[in-house]
Amino acid sequence: MKRLKLFLESLNFAVKSLAVNKIRTILSLMGITIGIFSIISVFTLFDSLRSNITSEINSLGSNVLFIQKWPWAMGGNYPWWKYYQRPQPKPKEVNELLKRSYTIEQAAFMFGIKRNVYYHDNSMENINIMAVSYPYNQIMTLNLQAGRYFTQIESKSGKSLAIIGSKVASNLFGKQDPIGKKIKAFGRKLTVIGVIKKKGSSIFGNQTDNEVLVPLNFALSLVNINKINTTIIVKVKPNISLAGAKSEITGIMRSIRSIRPGAANNFAINQTDIITKGMDSLFAILSIVGWIIGGFSLLVGGFGIANIMFVSVKERTNQIGIQKALGAKKYFILNQFLFEAIFLAVLGGIIGLLIVFILTIIASPIIGFPLTLTVGNIILGISVSGFIGLIAGLIPAWSAANLDPVEAMRTTF
Question: Are 202 and 309 members of one domain?
């Protein structure tokens, strides 16, 4: 009860002091508010980006490998000249991989090509048409809002069928049901058998909303794949490490392509952790930048709070002397001013967090992915502002606690 009473009395002194000096309080709050806003807004953006990127990467599958001509890389100079002469993956290599591998659960072949798509008088330009072999939907996540996927017979025979993205469906057909209707691409008519569920914008764009999927063998009859970037996607069996599967697949691919011992690979086996590691490194650097930018504002805010506390001690010197004469202990005076400094700093931090929260609501629809002020960032913002208040108020509070009561009562301000 004694501690609660002390807390309430300190709170009362702090609120009254801040209410009396409104302009001074607002000016002192601004430094902390701007500092917390700078740091937490940066962290909120980073956390939201990381969450969105992680979600996108997970949709590719955590146990999926991509055999391609070009290796993935994040940042730095990309030595494209090393890989330019490499051959593209071929459909026959998929069959060889499945025959020889013990780690592969399923494999599919795919490539993308830009084409215009038409339906009567409606058209869309440069739509990404993905030619995929039948096992594609067993490896990659493909959520359909209407219709169905290709059957194995349809895929093998190269039927002129299409599964379209939600944006393609809305732009070409409007409110009509696209299932069973025919669109035109490659100069051929394709029957729409499915519509991919709307995904919306993401960090990597909204590919599936603007895509058209066609059977691989249909596209192979119309396109020369020697000049197109192709991909073999591999799903690794459960309980087998990606490192182990990657090692086995490397050996098989070298054998298929008759690569001599000691010669460099003429293919790349990519996995999604390359993106994750690259993003983590980038975010680590940007986080430091965020702390530096916000740190200067917090430093200024800390000096502002220290200044207001020194002025507050000076104004209330006589009152402190009376309190001490009536038996107030040093810790009571110390806590009174220390609490006032912390209260002021935390109040500035809360205002900064409130501004961040309002901006997340406003900015989310504009940038195309959700911004979320997490509980962790809220706790961080309040903790940092409280710590700044503690440091800034320590010396003024200590000087107030150690005033001589007789001299203090004689002082006039």
Answer: no
Looking at the structure, tell me whether residues 363 and 340 fall in a common domain: yes
Identify whether residues 140 and 24 lie together within a single domain: no
The answer to whether residues 314 and 231 belong to one domain is no
Same domain, yes or no: 39 and 98: no
Q: Which residue reads 């989310």 in tokens? A: 364
Cα–Cα distance for residue pair 389/382, rounded to 1 Å: 10
**Could you tell me if 315 and 343 lie in one domain?**
yes
Please, what is the average pLDDT of the chain?
A: 82
Reference 225, options 36, 333, 91, 327; nearest CA is 91
Residue where a domain stops, chosen among 248, 271, 294: 271
Average pLDDT over residues 389-394: 85
**Residue 182 domain boundaries:** 64-271
Who's near 122: CB < 8 A, 6+ residues apart?
171, 172, 173, 174
38-47, 81-90, 96-105, 123-132: lowest mean pLDDT where? 38-47
Pick from 68, 76, 168, 163: which is nearest to 116 by CA?
Answer: 168
pLDDT in tens, 273-309: 777 777 777 777 777 877 777 777 777 778 777 877 7
Same domain, 165 and 230: yes
Nearest by Cα to 125 from 64, 171, 86: 171
- Alpha carbon distances (Å) from 116 to 103, 122, 194: 39, 11, 19
Q: Do 290 and 331 have their domain in common?
A: yes
